[in-house]
Amino acid sequence: MSLEKTLVILKPSAVQRGLIGEVTSRFERKGLRLAGMKMMQLTDELLNEHYAHLAGKPFFQRVKESMMACPVVVCCYEGVDAVQIVRSMTGATNGRVAIPGTIRGDYCVSSQENIIHTSDSPKTAAEEVNRFFKPEELFEYKQCTLQHLYYEDEYKLV
Ligand SMILES: Nc1ncnc2c1ncn2[C@@H]1O[C@H](COP(=O)(O)OP(=O)(O)OP(=O)(O)O)[C@@H](O)[C@H]1O
């Protein structure tokens, strides 16, 4: 168990279909804490870095163009084992085979337009959070003035 930060990108398919609230509410309901969130237009340069592992694939250019179709919403979530939790809530790459109950399983029928990107390991998550957010853009919950909302017992409020 470790306290982790992980990156979620609400892709143009989520933005254009008006699914931002639906998807982010799932992570909030689960109990993950939103540490950072912003809308941004991705660039070819940033996507070459982010999707470097896809560089040899026939769909690489098409995926990059899809990711630049409109601004995306980039989120950083924090929680114990957050990387694995978010990844399991995401579901398989192809929305047609992703299990119902997962985000891709519930909201898409495509491999490419699959609603969200989520970091796939703690190492990748650390790199991706660093790629998309400056440290000052992330809220540190340990400085939260309302920590009793999460840890009432430690604050002797119950
Ligand atoms: N066969 C394919 N056809 C079209 N697009 C694809 C295909 N495979 C992957 N992609 C696109 O490239 C993205 C990255 O592919 P990857 O293999 O890293 O999948 P993933 O880890 O499930 O997705 P992500 O990294 O976005 O969370 C996918 O999310 C999808 O948008």
UniProtKB/TrEMBL annotation:
Q: Which UniProt keywords apply?
A: ATP-binding, Kinase, Magnesium, Metal-binding, Nucleotide metabolism, Nucleotide-binding, Phosphoprotein, Transferase
Active site per the UniProt annotation: 117
Q: Where does ATP bind?
A: 11, 59, 87, 93, 104, 114
Presence of the UniProt keyword Phosphoprotein in the record: yes
Q: Name one GO molecular function term.
A: ATP binding
Domain called Nucleoside diphosphate kinase-like: residue spans: 3-140
Q: One biological-process term from Gene Ontology?
A: CTP biosynthetic process
Record EC number: 2.7.4.6
Q: Per its Swiss-Prot or TrEMBL entry, what cofactor is needed?
A: Mg(2+)
Family matches, as InterPro entries? NDK-like_dom, NDK-like_dom_sf, Nucleoside_diP_kinase
CDD domains in alphabetical order: NDPk_I (cd04413)
Q: Which PANTHER family match?
A: NUCLEOSIDE DIPHOSPHATE KINASE (PTHR11349)
- What family does the Swiss-Prot or TrEMBL record give for this protein? Belongs to the NDK family.
The protein's name: Nucleoside diphosphate kinase
Question: What gene is behind this protein?
Answer: ndk
